[in-house]
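Q: Can someone sanity-check these two? First one:
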Amino acid sequence: MSQGFYVNVEVNRTEAARYGLTVADVQQVVTSGIGGKNIAENIEGRQRYPINVRYSRDFRDNVEALSRLLIATPGGAQIPIGEVAKVSFSRGPSMIRDEDAALTGYVYIDLNTTDYGSFVTQADKVLRQQLALPAGYTYKWSGEYEFELRFPDPRSGQQ
């Protein structure tokens, strides 16, 4: 399973308020400086390319440097973001997916056959016999198999 690399910014609301800043103010600096912000669009014929500005990778990959990121206060002062937020890195899923508001993981299978129905029938039987899922966990077959169920091949004799 692949992992994602995340920048965490935990705003200290009390400290931010002392400087007249809101959580949204701090998040705006993080969003534009680290995630980037589209400032214009380059037009080449019929194609459009966004022009995105953000801090360089060397800066974004360094917790100490990010903690020194300056944020303007309503009073005009410039303070390091580390004064009002804790900046850290963490690892987690490369993408959080959900189906019907339940966290979801996918297993991809590449078959050497186009008889998906037979494979699913056999695999499902094995899983039901040998897999004990914890409460609240389920599995579901998807992909070409679902397509085959909705639109059976008239040559197969299945309805």
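And here is the second, same format, sequence then tokens:
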Amino acid sequence: MTLVAEADQRRIADAISEAERTTSGEIVAVIAPESATYYYVPFLWAALIALAVPWPFVFWTWWPIQHIYVLQLAVFAAFVALLMPSPIRLALVPRSVKHTRAHRRAVEQFMVQNLHTTVGHTGVLIFVSVAERFAEVIADRAIHEKVPETVWQAIVADLTEHIGKGQAGEGFVRAIKSAGEQLARHFPPEGRHDKGLSNHLIVLPPV
């Protein structure tokens, strides 16, 4: 099941086109299913648990060391399999780590989508990473000189609130409209500006 339905994806594309008609800036919206795999996490936890397994058997039983070693390997394999499913794997990752990875992915997408090359450095990225439950708006340096960070934080808060209500499409449309209003206020259209960046919602493949 996708975060944004196909009909809402069309609404988002229309919202970007409408917003960009009033400004020389550009807006790109990106959804990432996840920003990292975190496959190392089950192995890390399984290794820590397996390291603790031998001690009771060493001190309180007469088991041969070979049997204890086999048990240790079995425990390691069992916990790797148990902790590998995505919901469990993600639950074991600290929130700060997930947000750091998601922020890094957002910055990467700002570069990959060529927002850093916009005329006047007026590109805006609206980014959501689903698995990490993370949203961020990244605006280029010319925008930072005119629009305070609290404005973008309010846009992110509204977007995440709508996602939490199962209204991701509406949340994106509102975020795009709000970003467009800021761009239109400070960066009005200048002549015939050929906008070469994507207007549709970009949904990234899993990492």
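A (reply): Looked at the second one. The chain has two domains: 6-36+94-203, 40-91. The radius of gyration is 23 Å.
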